[in-house]
Structures are given as C-alpha cells and as structure tokens.
Amino acid sequence: MDPRDELIEESLRASQPRPSPEFTHGLEQRLLPPVSPTIRSRRRPLLVGGLGAAGLASALLGIQLIGGGPPLGGKDRDGAVRATDDCRTVTVMRRERIPRIARSDDGTPRVVYRYRVRPRQVKRCP
Predict the structure, then answer these.
(1) Where are the domains positioned within the chain?
(2) What's the CA gap between 76 and 84, in Å, rounded?
(3) What is the pTM of this model?
C-alpha cells in the first residue's frame, strides 16, 4: 500500500463527523422514552398467570407419567385401562403393473408393462 494512501485514510478517519453529546442525549430521550413503572406492574399478573398455568400443566404431566392413568374415565371395574381394537387384517387381491424393458422390431428399447394379481394384507377398521 502506498504511504500516501495511508495518510489519506488516516485523515479521513480523523475528520469523521461526530454529533455533540447534547444532541445525542436529546435524540435518545425523544426516540426511546424511559419505561414507566405502570407498564411493568401491568405485565406482572400476566407473568404470574403464565407461570402458574405452566406449573399446573407440568404437575399434571408428571402425575400422568408416574402412572396416574387417564384423568377422566377409561377404566374397568378393577381399575385397569382396556383399549379395544375393532380392526381386522384381511387378504385382498391387488392388480400390480410391473415394468420391464423390451426391444422393439427395429431394436430400440421401450418400456412394456406386465400385469399380475397378488394377494396383499390390508388392515380394515369399521
């Protein structure tokens, strides 16, 4: 780098305009007014309510994970939870299309499909 370029850069850095401290302070006061204590006091009940709801939800989750079971019903006379599944697995016949590459009379390859019927196991629920 040329020494003249360094001198020019140094003089440009030294001559940067800087606002006066009074102007800066006045601008900050005008654009960013101080937070009044009434806004903080309005937010406090919301914070307490949100934390209370989160605490209650985590307590209920903990009870469920420990083994409290479902909170509303769902139990037999002996207290065990019984889940029923009315679904059945049935065999259905499906038609499949199987591709293969064949050569035509002039030697160019082309895709030819062959159809095949195969049994498949399917879960059916009412």
Answers:
(1) 20-68, 88-124
(2) 12
(3) 0.29
